[in-house]
Amino acid sequence: MMHQTVIEISNLAKEIELAKGNLLQVLADISFEVKAGEFISIVGPSGSGKTTLLYCISSLLPPTNGEVLINGKSPYQWNPTKLAKFRRKEIGFIFQDFQLIPSLSAYDNLVLPGTLNRRKVKKQAVEELAARLELHAELHQSIDALSGGEQQKVAIGRTILADPDILFLDEPTSALDTHSRKLVMALLQELVAQGKTVVMVTHDLELAAQSSRALVMKDGQMLRMVEAPSLETLVF
Ligand SMILES: Nc1ncnc2c1ncn2[C@@H]1O[C@H](COP(=O)(O)OP(=O)(O)OP(=O)(O)O)[C@@H](O)[C@H]1O
Ligand SMILES: [Mg+2]
Fold first, then answer.
1. Residues 6+ apart with CB under 8 A from 127
2. Rounded to whole angstroms, how far apart are CA atoms 100 and 113?
């Protein structure tokens, strides 16, 4: 079932109340679908609504209008317990600010989602992934002792080890150098080849050009969807 629709977004809008009676329209009338095994990127200028869109389509933030279906179901209609379980088991998220646990080691952060799911992540799997991310020397250091780039690699590793079917990534390479970006992109491409679905917000058009489709945002609107994007077709 390679081409089934995993995410279906119809006429999505998000308004945020800044003060009483003062509404900010952050997203307006966005519709698109993502199929299983697709690697879709979301690009656009700062403040165009990329993070808000990623939250809305991933079950983290209810839209004010429109519909979000993930695997044919509307997560916003579930009770908190079911929603929490879904977020823990079915999807993975990399936050723009990582959201690691600072007092724990890199290793303990990497295995945390497994622990929460009562599923022991094998030491060998952690070490192999850490080696792929060139993070092995830092595995037993506390998160506070790591650089921003190293912390971002831990955030990426944590999400991959949790083994979700759909990955939502907000600027997953923002703190990485060119070499590390390549390591991460290779890992993401492998996941996609295995049939996982990846939705990635990025400022980096070179990365977006490696995705299968790119959604271009501007001022809270979906400007266009670019098929098989390249650096030339992605200029916004
Ligand atoms: N909770 C909120 N309260 C007030 N304004 C918000 C809130 N969430 C988003 N916004 C505003 O909505 C707009 C879109 O924000 P968003 O974070 O989605 O943009 P972005 O494209 O991810 O930007 P960046 O590239 O800088 O990460 C911005 O103008 C932001 O200030
Ligand atoms: Mg953002």
1. 136, 139
2. 11
Q: Residue 56: CB partners within 8 Å, gap ≥ 6?
A: 12, 14, 27, 62, 63, 68
Please tell me the pTM assigned to this model.
Answer: 0.95
Q: Which residues of 76-108 are buried (b: 16+ CB within 10 A; e: fewer)?
A: eeeeeeeeeebbebebbbbbeebebeeebbbbb
Residue in 12, 14, 15, 24 to alter for ligand 1 test, most ligand atoms within 8 A of Cβ:
24
Which residue among 42, 50, 200 is best mutated to probe the pocket of ligand 1, counting the most ligand atoms within 8 A of its Cβ?
Answer: 50
pLDDT band at 136 (very low <50, low <70, confident <90, very high): confident
pLDDT tens-place string over residues 14-46: 999 998 889 999 999 999 999 999 999 999 999
Comparing CA positions, the residue from 234, 235, 233, 215 lying closest to residue 223 is 215
